[in-house]
Amino acid sequence: MPIVECIPNVSEGRDQAVLDACGDAIRGAGARLLDVKPDATHHRTVFTFAGEPAAVKASALALFETALARIDLRHHKGEHPRLGAVDVVPFVPIEGVTMADCVAMAREVGADVARRHNLPVFLYEEAAAVPARRNLEDIRRGEFEGLPAKLKQPEWAPDFGPAAPHPTAGASVIGARVALIAYNINLATNRLDVAKKIAAAIRQSSGGFRYVKAMGIELADRGIVQVSMNLTNFEKTPMFRVFEIVKREAERHGVSVLESEIVGLVPAAALTASAAWYLQLEGFKDDQILENRLR
Amino acid sequence: MPIVECIPNVSEGRDQAVLDACGDAIRGAGARLLDVKPDATHHRTVFTFAGEPAAVKASALALFETALARIDLRHHKGEHPRLGAVDVVPFVPIEGVTMADCVAMAREVGADVARRHNLPVFLYEEAAAVPARRNLEDIRRGEFEGLPAKLKQPEWAPDFGPAAPHPTAGASVIGARVALIAYNINLATNRLDVAKKIAAAIRQSSGGFRYVKAMGIELADRGIVQVSMNLTNFEKTPMFRVFEIVKREAERHGVSVLESEIVGLVPAAALTASAAWYLQLEGFKDDQILENRLR
Lengths: 295, 295
Fold this sequence. Notes:
Two copies of one chain form a homodimer. The first copy, chain A, is α+β, with helices and mostly antiparallel strands. Chain A folds into two domains: 3-176, 2-Layer Sandwich (Formiminotransferase-cyclodeaminase, Chain B, domain 1), CATH 3.30.990; 181-288, Alpha-Beta Plaits, CATH 3.30.70. Chain A is built from eight helices and eleven strands. In chain A, strands 1, 2, 3, 4, 5, 6 and 7 form a seven-stranded mixed β-sheet that branches. The longest helix of chain A is centred in the middle third of the chain and has 19 residues, at 99-117. The first copy, chain A, is globular and about 60 Å long. Chain A starts with a strand and ends in a 17-residue tail after the last helix. The mean pLDDT of chain A is 95. The interface between A and B is large, with 43 and 43 residues.
């Protein structure tokens, strides 16, 4: 059974009735709703759902239908930047599905919602038509309020839909990307400078691994520090490599790794790849995993 | 979805028509047939199938029906010891099923085939009623030919069925056990003595880990040696611990581990546990694996 994950970010983090309606819409259209994370300060909610491609596509369309009827960005204020009522919709290949399949889904859903709702749609990350649109932050710059001016610029003509914002829903950014893993490593020390130095050493922005975002933070209640990370492409920058270099960098400061933690969901392949690397498994195939044979 | 695996050993390794009939019987009754491994020298075939408990039970019963009608042990000669036409039938908990559930399945199937076919049945391993019947080799000692005498001894009265052998099918041994992993570690040396010493150090029979069977063998075509193992309880003697001690023992002889390999199927939990151990994951729960949430 092929599996796609979808993690839409919706610009509503306070009205439970709206969030319930969105959740019901997702479930009703066939995908499995795995998680709902509202944030009142950001006035924004992250939904996570997954299932077979056809079900995920139907659920994404149902979410647009429901959210656009209930969210009015003209009255929306939160701490998180946003361009639209359904702000960002990434499709993620999990199993038996290629990135190209997810790019195709993003295009289909984008064309469909643009037509149904007269909504400008930008395609981002792997689904981007040009390199300048890969990065979500670049597309979102100017936010909802800046959309009328932005859409008039030829280089920001939308990929689908009109070159004018939807009056209440702005525009949406739809795309495809690899699964993201929220991964933290705790150090057996209270020295925040060590966590910050390690974070700087491993993150892309300061010369580290390409698909790592990292910062050093204090866990004051436990008297320890943490290297808090997002792994944005676990196939190209895998968990085991990040863990091993963090351990080595800590050692250089006379510090030990206490433990690590995965926050939220992780694709099985990220763990399997780690087991295979540490155990030096040669010629291992995923269909040797008994459970995979029963899908 | 709860999953049980069943790995019956049938005393026929040469007649493809009989093996096909057995495979069809398994599939037809609802379980998924994952593997068929005939061995002409042993005159014996190992079937592997899995699925929901009810389907696995039905498939096991169907296999007895088909195999008992086609196999006559009075004319059977092979290198592998055997007691019956359907010689050994273990049920293995894979997911969402306890060992107690598998013991119950073994008892139900045992009672059922004893009644339907007038067949003596012994329960073994986790399903054994007394410690003396845990070990398959003890039950099988004397083989098909010794059954009439063995069954007359009070301590070898069958758990189900008559105290006399089935004329053509002998008796069957049915039980429950944890999944077995066939796991090999290749060393970057041609020194067979090193592989043999490591095997002796880690196996239960000579003082090593309780759930490890191991021997040192030569891979002559590659000019290397191998520690060839069966891990008979990966929860209590896990892969990562075995791998690490083999690596350390090799090091003591100035030898490196070249690679390891899993032969055949492995439960996902064995790999997940290895990843969690190496990555020092704390508080990790199996329902954080995205695919598990979709079952």
